[in-house]
């Protein structure tokens, strides 16, 4: 499950990685602007043999001693298996949650509506989302405020570790909130990182024991941020919705395999041939496979506040800085002119990746117990910087149901001419009015307005739209939704597709 390339402490040999099958190896994920690093590690299995256990302990101690050189920061170790729900609990909660939306008729809908909130609370799904977001805030506080490295530990480091590390990067790195950045994040942490999509999604319908909606949990958490801070994201909730749908479309290889190795092995197999030639794997990121250009416009956020570009005169005099934190950690000391960039950052990674021995990893007792709450309240008391740190609101009713994804097929739940789509349309009208006034005054176009405000022309008359647009039907004679609901649009006539029920694709056979 290990990726082809990954960053580890220099003291770890390839023989050790092969011997322990990647377990006990801290792998670097991302670094904050202050140099604090986020890492993940798969835990050693509990051994009954004392000699094996002692050998594993000696191996870990050797790693910690090699790079335990003050005055570099301590590393906080966080065992996610003890602080977050298990995969079984997540699967159980999501199964109960899905049942709320399996409604056959209006009678069932109104019967459920009477006790909706109690039923929703009993599923525990929103509480799991809240706990995951809170854990991401804790990690962000360690990196941003305490300048402390964080090591996330899990049995395989490919499930909840992926969720937390991805959320932290979305919250702290504005590049991860762009379409290209979010795609790179998913590829790095999930696809190449070894998340078991085949087992967790149960694509082959072989066993339900390994099934768990881990990736959907991430998308639900990201959606909370998108709906709380729309100008901070280049993509829309529709982007997240179609991405979650693509998780179960078997023609894409992106979310179909358990690891990069499994994908490459099957890709090079001799059996993957068709009459017209070798079988071609499709990537989910090529949206033209599913949607035409007009439909793809719904994936772009017209309210996105693009990061202002620095003035040319300032760029000539300013010292070069790395704006993206997707490389190795930055050094805190002044760079040497005699050493290369990669060598300098690698040295800092070695010194920062693990600060002290394992017995000293836990937070110091001098740390105030309410520091997290102070950090949370302090951030929310200030104006939001859409290009800086984002902290989700997790109190009370702030955690909401992803209505577009789960209610789009329930006609009774739609608000015609209302909902967030109506709000977005009014905001677009105001933005266009401001823009026209600026043009008349011969002023420069506002940097806060990015993209083409006319990219989604159907928003011009919000009174005719449903709150679940573009998936819900419009109030007109045409029954065709704005966004196609089938991937197989090239196989038959589009008008026929919208009149048909969703087809069930049987994947119970052996994988090629």
UniProtKB/TrEMBL annotation:
Major localization class: cytoplasm
Family annotation (InterPro entries): MTMR12-like_C, MTMR12_PTP, Myotubularin, Myotubularin-like_Pase_dom, Prot-tyrosine_phosphatase-like
Subcellular location: Cytoplasm
GO BP, one annotated term: phosphatidylinositol dephosphorylation
Classification via CDD domains: PTP-MTMR12 (cd14594)
Record's keyword terms, sorted: Cytoplasm
UniProt name for this protein: MTMRC protein
Native organism: Tychaedon coryphoeus
């Amino acid at each position: 499950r290990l990726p082809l390339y990954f960053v580890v402490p220099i003291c770890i040999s390839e023989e050790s990685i092969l011997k322990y099958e990647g377990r006990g190896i801290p792998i670097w994920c991302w670094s904050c602007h202050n140099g604090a690093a986020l890492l993940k590690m798969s835990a050693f299995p509990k051994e009954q043999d004392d000699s094996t256990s002692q050998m594993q302990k000696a191996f870990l101690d050797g790693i910690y001693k090699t790079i335990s050189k003050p005055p570099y920061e301590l590393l906080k170790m966080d065992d996610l298996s003890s602080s977050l729900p298990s995969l079984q609990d997540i699967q159980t909660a999501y199964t109960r949650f899905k049942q709320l939306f399996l409604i056959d008729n209006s009678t069932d809908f109104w019967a459920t509506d009477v006790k909706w909130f109690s039923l929703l609370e009993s599923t525990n799904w929103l509480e799991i989302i809240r706990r995951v977001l809170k854990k991401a805030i804790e990690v962000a506080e360690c990196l941003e405020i305490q300048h402390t490295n964080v090591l996330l530990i899990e049995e395989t480091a490919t499930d909840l570790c992926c969720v937390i590390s991805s959320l932290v990067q979305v919250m702290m790195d504005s590049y991860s909130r762009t379409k290209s950045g979010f795609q790179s994040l998913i590829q790095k942490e999930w696809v190449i990182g070894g998340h078991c999509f085949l087992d967790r999604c149960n694509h082959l319908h072989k066993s339900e024991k390994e099934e768990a909606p881990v990736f959907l949990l991430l998308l639900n958490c990201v959606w909370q941020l998108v709906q709380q801070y729309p100008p901070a994201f280049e993509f829309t909730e529709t982007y997240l919705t179609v991405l979650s749908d693509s998780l179960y479309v078997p023609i894409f290889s992106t979310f179909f395999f358990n690891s990069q190795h499994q994908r490459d092995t099957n890709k090079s197999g001799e059996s993957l041939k068709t009459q017209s030639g070798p079988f071609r794997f499709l990537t989910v990121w090529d949206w033209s496979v599913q949607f035409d250009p007009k439909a793809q416009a719904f994936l772009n956020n017209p309210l996105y506040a693009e990061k202002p570009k620095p003035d040319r005169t300032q760029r000539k005099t300013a010292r070069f800085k790395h704006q993206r934190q997707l490389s190795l950690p930055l050094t805190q000391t002044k760079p040497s002119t005699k050493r290369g960039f990669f060598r300098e950052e690698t040295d800092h990674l070695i010194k920062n990746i693990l600060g002290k021995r394992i017995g000293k990893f836990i937070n110091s007792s001098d740390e105030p117990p309410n520091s997290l709450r102070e950090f949370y309240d302090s951030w929310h008391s200030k104006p939001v910087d859409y290009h800086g740190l984002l902290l989700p609101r997790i109190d009370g009713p702030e955690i909401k149901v992803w209505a577009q994804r789960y209610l789009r097929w329930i006609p009774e739940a739609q608000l015609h001419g209302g909902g967030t789509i109506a709000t977005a349309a009014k905001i677009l009208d105001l933005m266009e009015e401001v823009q026209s006034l600026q043009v008349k005054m011969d002023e420069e176009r506002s940097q806060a307005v990015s993209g083409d405000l006319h990219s989604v022309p159907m928003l011009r008359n919000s009174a005719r739209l449903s709150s679940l647009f573009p998936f819900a039907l419009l109030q007109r004679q045409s029954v065709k939704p704005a966004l196609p609901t089938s991937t197989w649009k090239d196989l038959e006539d589009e008008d026929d597709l919208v009149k048909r029920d969703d087809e069930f694709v049987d994947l119970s056979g052996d994988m090629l």
